[in-house]
UniProtKB/TrEMBL annotation, chains A, B, C, D:
CDD domains: GPATase_N (cd00715), PRTases_typeI (cd06223). This is Amidophosphoribosyltransferase. In the C-terminal section; belongs to the purine/pyrimidine phosphoribosyltransferase family. Binds 1 Mg(2+) ion per subunit. The gene is purF. GO terms for biological process: 'de novo' IMP biosynthetic process; purine nucleobase biosynthetic process.
Length: 474, 474, 474, 474
């Protein structure tokens, strides 16, 4: 469902293209299809015959590039772009990516999706050497590591730097004559490569952006790989061989767009299967209809309906227009503000017993609000079905909940949560059910998924975050 | 589906409230839920203890009221608002509603949804009497008729004026101490009244706006009625008894939000039923899945799937973010621009035979584009199913196609259309199927629906448009 | 000096051109030179081969036309423009001129400088006939009178309307094929005609705008004249012969730009002469320097210095950049806000006895502030010399002080004012001295000047304002 | 005169305050009075109890801080601000000052007026050590030198860095608990300290900003000094004793505001004296009046008039409103564009012989344009008098002409220039006359002035610019 309402936010989407006349426009199209990955800032760096140009600003892509003339200031046949979700209080333009570093004899642009786990340590080490970072963003640390590297050639410098940073990262780096793409050794975040009919290469956080830009899927960037794209074409290299898949399961559950494939698995189909398996696992109830929370749970709801034989209905409507819900002075107005975004369909649910399918419960406040919406619209019973296991552990790989106090399931039983969200019954998908529904089957724990959110089994050392986690566990 | 793509646009949505402390904010919420009825301009007039204040501007509601401080300039316990679709080339701010007329001893605000059929004639008559209209909009004519009326009291003046204008109209009129709502004798456009828990009354183009504002449905404004709301409550009066229902069938087919009820019929349920009946009427085909064109055809597609027993899948994804598709220099970029808004899900449709459900075909260009999107994404067969009869006749009651040249079905057979849109088969819902699916059953032709779009049976005299129609028929 | 500080504001400047390829740009240039006549709104209507186009907005010309593309939306070989000072609380865009009236078969644009004295009466009469005005501005009344006129041809309609409105007016009216300029029977406001080398005609509120646009002065529009300019050239006609000059003396004293000529008299030279005559009339004092309040009193100060033999120095500096002085929370900050605009030159005035020349005293607050600025900067003595007689009576002809309570000289003696403004001495120019300095010598009272501000001798009947005046006199 | 017209631009003005509740507002006031020193960007960093906040943007101060709410985002009792003139093509926000550097354990803000002569060398050295600069501006180099310094305490780090940079600099540096001000060893640019009645200290590029902020002048920052201001008050220290005054003479001639004092000399008085001495040095001509080019030459013109006994008149009027002169398509429109800014007063100069006083001739194009304006307005003769010696050598200390090709006097004789600018006679002030008029009398060459512009005698080694100069001399 809508990320603002949910309270879970992932950091960023990236897009790059090399070899197309209208590189910045293609990047604009591609970023638009990745807009769900970050709504608080966007930017594009284009490469015009070796000269790099940057435009970035706060807001949605449509606000950042509201004047076509802005796109025209980004000429050239290559470009990288970024959409960003900004952590609170950090509204400096300097934090919006791509970053463009200006050296006397070179320009280098950088875009990053993910979260480093040793950024604080690295930042302090760099400052002790006299470096002044340009932003509050950990994303730029890689660039300083490259610049400080004593390796002899640029490729070796990048590799050294990529081995120094830890955690989750999908990087795009554009120099005056080359585009690099790199993925961390666990492949937490998706990153795919496509090819256009004119031979141009496209790299993007999700395959939906390849489709939008008219590119054909070539391959995913794999954990530990460093891909180089220039006028000679594509070269696949690696910066480490010490890799093991741990793809973020939340990408499948709700981050990614349903039309994307991750590691070959279509996201809509995985979600529909989550719904089907949940229908099989869950206690049967007499209900008149299955409804999904739009938009992210509609696939799962249709799967649930199919498997249960209960009709699939549209009991909730999400307003397709984005509006600002100003801070409202009264409780009544705040509730109406919620209904601006999502409303229950009285004509459908009145007097009916409803199975409500949602993808996850974070704090529980959203679920409570939706259950209430349905009951105010006359629903007799609301049976809540969640297509993921309970979220109990913080994420340090790019999802913005690093404190498990915010996670209701970290401290409440399923029955307690049910009571809190005022549902008539509540069931979660099992961990096994989730793994089976996604069906990755990679040679790694959990078939190649990161399940730390649900079971605390972090696939990497946590570095700076180790103490955070330990504090929690006391 | 998205109106920009479709090319059919309705003129406007209206919302009014009387008796609530935060009237302008409520109107903002209400208009937001009516945003699908007009995206090119919006405005609110508030009534602060008899003093009227206006703010209006071009663009979406979120752009017009992007600063909360703008709402704060609209104090008072009553307000009316309007969202507008502007006809090309008429970008003056003066044309954005509500209109606020300043007289020496009174202020009067006016908002209009619909289209008059004798506006040109009335405008000329008024000018001959020395009147200078303030805008290019026909909507303001009513106000001049009121002001010119020789009736003794304001209510009689309004009634006289309402009997002078012809065609489709849902008016909100706010004076310093009163709010009026009036509906044309055929009730072409919906207009409903709700009541809030504090006693405030709300009037809106669709019941979804009542829900959003937290009001309970009271009644629809009926054809020929003139409703008055002031501090003494609600008074239902009428300006004519010569009425006959002819509710625009397009409201059910795709204009209205699925969570709205029109004349007691839920729009989602009607659409689902259109899908079901169409599945029964249409020739059976072997297909792997049913997909709907988002968002307006999803209800119908799920109905089609249920009735046919073929699985319902998400084969098309609409980008939930609105982006500007600048005029693109090449055909390739234009096609990518289309995919920015709507994309086919390769992982779902590749190698499959697909039943594609859409609500209507206007020019055919959109259908062709969607069929192509699906085939480019690997769909083996695309069987197009339309949940309305072929559109053959222009509308003069508020839908912006007044020239049947733009309607492909006015000059092409079903088979010719199928060939043009490159579908493997094509079926339309029958007129009877449509009437049955909606199920109005009012004591009027076609159960109370206007079917002129499909069969040319206009429920009123056409006045200024008679010649337009006659020209066409030659 | 700066009008915001002074508190006296005149309503508007007008500019028109007929017959030049770049009519809107010329109008932009011309209006810029008239910007001192109105800073709160500006607009241009262009005439492109009979089709009229309007752009207008709040703010300075540089804000209204900050994008060159806006000027490009105003094509054509003729244009009229307006700069406006808006009365408080009336910030509707509708009040910004030129007005553009859209009739079914014609477009008419109107721009007005001045103030009608019978507007309230006329507005009520029009409304009683069913007319709804478009704005709060009295300026549009003329257009409705034209439209209502029963005269047979347009020229006769205009003449009838011009004889119905009373007070001060300089009108520009542009139709699809013609530009009219009209001046009230007393010629309160200046209006001059120029001719460009290509034959184009220019009409402007001040001759400085003729110079800026590269036109050569042809003649002033005279009281009661109605001038017509079209592709056949210039035709001078009149709507009344009952005229008598009463040119606003304030135009000479401080409204007009020093490089303008009014009725053949250069404004800078007139001001310098006011300074000279005041130096002769005033009691001699031992002083080290003469300083003028920038910018409007610099001419007079240099005249005073020349006549008195005392050196002319720059003891006050006006910041050439316009800044917003936000409402400041403390008295200290408010004083600094004043100094942002005008500051005393300590290095010049410290320890010195200063003759301070200013053009007028309205409320006295500005004079007091400037005297204080100088004393805080170390001036030993400040002898204030005003190059106009005391302002005692309200103006109803376009200067925005209609209440004599705001005029300190209406209720205080010169000695009382001196004490209030904390000057060491204070002298005003005599009425005869003013008339002599300007030197109009027209065949009318006061040589053709309106002196009502100083002596209450209004040159016309006051109509709506008679009661205002009478109340005051009680 | 207006700097845009002239083509000479100085880089920047700085303002700082420590110890005042409304520090950002005071800085806004102060910067406004320094706006003439830079119109292309502005910023403020405030210090709220140790926490630094930045806002900066392109444009005039009134545009950058057009919303009062922006000032409200800058709380605290200390602040530094900067107004900037940006060199062409370098429109990144990153180049607008103050710079705010974010370290893990500290924030440091920096503002710079001047130009370093060894910046290119230093930049390359820093990059070789792995440093990535944040901007194209040389101003940030100091900060990296501080950060890289191996000195043990911050004060020693700053001193070391200040001894590493060469050329012209007035720096303000604000840390979390302290404000530093430093001036280069030659004192090229002015920098003065004031004290407010509440004990707050103010530092500013010109004393006019002290006056505006209500501070009393305390002392100038002297060459080689490093001043520290914190809650304990003012401490005057120095980073070098190897100093020698070489104050930029152009500050007196036209950069500084006439109400500022530089090294105790009032700028208006110095200019008036330049005019007087020039009147004595120049060949006498029969002329009707002396006129100055507004605004910078009015003081000199009044001095010339006094010394020559010829009346001082206002023969040129500068429009007090700033307008954009868009690129105009025709020569005629371009000329009108010039007149928008400056116009000749026909009523004053027609038929007259005029002495025109201006402060300098750079390319000669402006002088030619003004002479033409006067002649087109009817002036019989125009005798041009320049209150500075011919400009023959480039400046490397902060004035934006580094190529003597742009200086007409570098390659033309006085008679050749006279002919080019179409004046009837032309005289320049002598070097000795200029030194005498300013009257600094410091114990240094030329009484403490930098006269390199006129005679090539640069007071420092030129480092990176040595080759630039040598190329020129071939």
């Amino acid at each position: 469902m809508s990320y603002e309402i949910k309270g879970l936010k992932e950091e960023c989407g990236v897009f790059g293209v090399w070899g197309h006349e209208a590189a910045a426009r293609l990047t604009y199209f591609g970023l638009h299809s990745l807009q769900h990955r970050g709504q608080e800032g966007a930017g594009i760096v284009s490469n015009d015959a070796g000269s790099l140009h940057l435009y970035r600003n706060h807001g949605l892509l449509s606000q950042v590039f509201k004047d076509e003339s802005t796109l025209d200031t980004l000429p050239g046949k290559a470009a990288i772009g970024h959409v960003r979700y900004a952590t609170a209080g950090n509204h400096s333009l300097n934090n919006i990516q791509p970053f463009l570093f200006e050296l006397s004899d070179a320009q280098i642009a950088l875009a990053h999706n993910g979260n480093l786990t040793n950024a604080t340590t690295l930042r302090k080490e760099l400052e002790a050497q006299g470096t002044i970072l340009h932003s509050n963003s950990d994303s730029e640390i890689l660039m300083h590591l490259i610049q400080k590297s004593t390796q002899s050639d640029f490729l070796s410098k990048i590799k050294e730097a990529l081995n120094t940073v830890k955690g989750a990262f999908a990087y795009l780096i554009m120099t005056n004559d080359c585009l690099y793409a790199a993925l961390d050794p666990n492949g937490f975040r998706p990153l795919s490569i496509g090819r256009m009919s004119n031979g141009a290469y496209v790299v993007a956080s999700e395959t939906c952006a390849l489709e939008v830009s008219g590119a054909t899927f070539v391959c995913d960037v794999k954990p530990g790989q460093l891909v180089k794209i220039d006028d000679n074409g594509l070269t696949i290299d690696h910066f480490t061989e010490d890799t093991q898949y741990a793809i973020c399961s939340m990408e499948f559950i709700y981050f990614a767009r349903p039309d994307s494939n991750i590691a070959g698995i279509n996201v809509h189909s995985a979600r529909k299967k989550m719904g089907k398996i949940l229908a099989q696992e869950a206690k049967k109830v007499e209900a008149d209809m299955v409804i999904g929370v739009p938009n992210s749970s509609l696939s799962a709801a249709s799967g649930y309906a199919e498997a249960s034989g209960i009709p699939y209905e549209m009991g909730l409507v999400k307003n397709q227009y984005i509006a600002r819900t100003f801070i409202q002075p009264t409780q009544e107005l705040r509730e109406q503000g919620v209904r601006m975004k999502l409303s229950a369909v009285r004509g459908v649910v009145e007097g009916k017993s409803v199975i409500l399918v949602d993808d996850s419960i974070v704090r529980g406040t959203t679920s409570k609000r939706i259950v209430r919406l349905l009951k105010e619209a006359g629903a007799k019973e609301v049976h809540l079905r969640i297509t993921s296991p309970p979220l109990k552990y913080p994420c340090f790989y790019g999802i913005d909940i690093q404190d498990s106090k915010e996670l209701i399931a970290a401290s409440h039983s399923v029955e307690e949560i049910r009571e809190l969200v005022e549902a008539d019954s509540l069931e979660f998908l099992s961990e096994d059910g989730l793994i089976k529904a996604i069906g990755l089957n990679l040679d790694a724990p959990y078939g190649g998924l990161c399940m730390a959110y649900f079971n605390g089994d972090y696939p990497t050392k946590l570095f700076d975050y180790q103490s955070v986690l330990e504090k929690r566990q006391k």
